UniProtKB/TrEMBL annotation:
GO terms for molecular function: CoA-transferase activity. It holds the Pfam family CoA_transf_3. This is Crotonobetainyl-CoA:carnitine CoA-transferase CaiB. It comes from the Bacteria. InterPro entries: CoA-transferase_III_domain, CoA-Trfase_fam_III, CoA-Trfase_III_dom3_sf, CoA-Trfase_III_dom_1_sf.
Amino acid sequence: MEIGHFVAAPFCTRILGDLGADIIKIEPLAGDPVRQWGEQIDGRSLWWSIHGRNKRSLALDLKAKEARDIVLRLIAQCDVLVENFRPGQLEKMGLGDAVLREAKPDLVIAHVSGYGQTGPWKDKAAFGVIGEAIGGLRHLTNHPPGTYDLPPVRVGVSIGDSIAGLYAAFGIMSALWQRDRVAGDRKGRSIDVALTESVFSMMEAMLPEYGKLGKIKQPTGGGIATAAPSNAYPTADGGFMLIAANSEPLFARLAELLGQPELARDPKYIGNRQRVANSAELDELIARWTRQYSAAELQEKLEQADIPSSKAYTAADAADDAQYRFRGMVREVEDPALGTVLHTGVVPHMPEAPGTIRWTGPDIGQHSEELLAMAGFAPEDIAALKQHGVVK
């Protein structure tokens, strides 16, 4: 069951749903607010088609006195609850962990919040962007200090929320395995995922470098602070080609392409540490070469030399990509409200048990009646709940 909204918890359950889980989404009578995000066709979000896929929607007023009984009767048939309210909010509704486990003793409960369920900041408001800021990511998404005077840019998607959702999904599967394995203890478990901590955990050597050396990691633009050459280089047709030649054999092959094989023997560029120390000069050498060719010409040359490279994909590039299409990562899916929609495929890919897109994001409360019937409500009870505005 998902009692979530916006991105983090729903992203977690989307992953689980893609892999075969039966997801019951509890959402407000007006629907999850993310239904209004992004581009719309006739008032229906294209993002929602993906974000809500493989879920059954029960539209429920959680503030109604009848809501508690509905949730508990459904939770008795569930293995997992995922929620992303502020800490303590479910408890105020009479749906704290202890109450939930009275209905389902071995329930796995995943709490996703801005700062976690404990600590002095647990009650502060947060969205994914705040997690990215406190996790250290936003500081790093910029050009080097002194070269750019605009605010640090956003990654481009709600990456903080999605990372937290991924951690929650992984934690859920770990908890279920521990609970259900041979000679498992059949005990319920709680998972506490913070947006801030999820992003912070991705920051590579940022913390140990500061703790041991007092070094504060700084933004590096398109490059990588720990490897060179690895950057985005300009092309003759106004684009950028990403080239990652940050190993000895790769750099030697790139030097051959540049027509300067001696670079691979230059003491300034022998070994990754030396190339990183001289990366600005090296990047300029490579950029002078890449500016002579179009992106297509560069791609052909780099592929022939077996050097990792690519232009920066747009949505159009991804939609037309032969590899994505072959592996089902770009799929044409029929949405009853939108017609044919392109969806991203299922990750991870498991050939023996491939995940499926069983249906697209449902209408608000599309499955309310069947879910209430599953919980044991008679048709007349369901009609009364609808009449009193408890469910939709």
